[in-house]
Amino acid sequence: MYQHQLKLSRYGKLTQITDVGIVLLPEMPTMQPRIFQLNCSPGGLPKLAVREAVVTELGLIGDDHRFPEIHGGPERALCLFSLDRILELQGEGHSIFPGAVGENVTISGLDWDRMKPGQRLVLGEEVLIEITTYTSPCNSIADTFADGKYQRIYQKVHPGYSRVYARVLQPGRLTVGQAVRLLNGSNPG
Questions:
Q1: What is the DSSP letter of 125?
Q2: Residue 12 lies inside a defined structural domain of this protein
Q3: Are strands 105-108 and 78-82 parallel, antiparallel or unpaired?
Q4: Which residue in 56, 177, 164, 49 sits closest to 109, CA to CA?
Q5: How do strand 34-40 and strand 48-50 relate by DSSP bridges?
Q6: What pLDDT tens digit does each residue of the chain (189 aa) get?
Q7: How many domains does the chain have?
Q8: Full strand arrangement of the beta sheet holding 52-56
Q9: Strand order in the sheet with 5-8
Q10: Backbone φ and ψ of 13, nearest 5°
């Protein structure tokens, strides 16, 4: 099986290597943070890409969790991660790709160091969320990391590299490519 991997092509275009070949990804403006990918699964990893999704107070419709006592619920309705961090981690030799570590929303162009509990974001035109906590990585994502070192995305060990959980304050519909805005302060560029 071919490892899913994002790369910049020799022409500066973002491509994704998949089981079916190399796919040229649509260009996303870097001025405004954007939803790069939405991810769902019936339970387990990786979460798979969907073009659009409906968000409720409990997360994305169609997304489920193998261990609901650990994942999900109103305070952990959505899991978010940074495309920019994923690309950095790939550069370190990890086989991570969007959805591999269980995030529902992969965001590009956002200063991930600003993702802290209490931070509010508007996703797309309708959805309002608030970051509740950093996620704690578990051994189910070990295969995604060189030598199984999944602690690479643990906030206490590598600040700024953790996924984050969020509660949904206003539900709505999301589509890949929509803008992401920070409400507590100015948008990073």
A1: T
A2: no
A3: parallel
A4: 177
A5: antiparallel
A6: 344 555 555 444 555 555 555 555 555 544 699 999 999 999 889 999 999 999 999 999 999 866 656 667 899 999 999 999 999 999 999 999 999 999 999 999 999 999 999 999 999 999 999 999 999 998 999 999 999 999 999 999 999 999 999 999 999 999 999 999 999 754 444
A7: 1
A8: 59-60, 52-56, 172-175
A9: 5-8, 14-18, 21-24
A10: -100, 140
What are the tokens at 40? Answer: 């769902």
Is 6 among the domain residues?
Answer: no
Structure tokens at 178: 């929509």
Domain containing 92: what range?
A: 28-182
In a domain, 108, yes or no: yes
Which position has the token pair 């997360």? 59
In angstroms, the CA 144 to CA 130 distance is 27
Structure tokens at 84: 């920019």
Half-sphere exposure (CA, 13 Å, Cβ side) for 61? 10
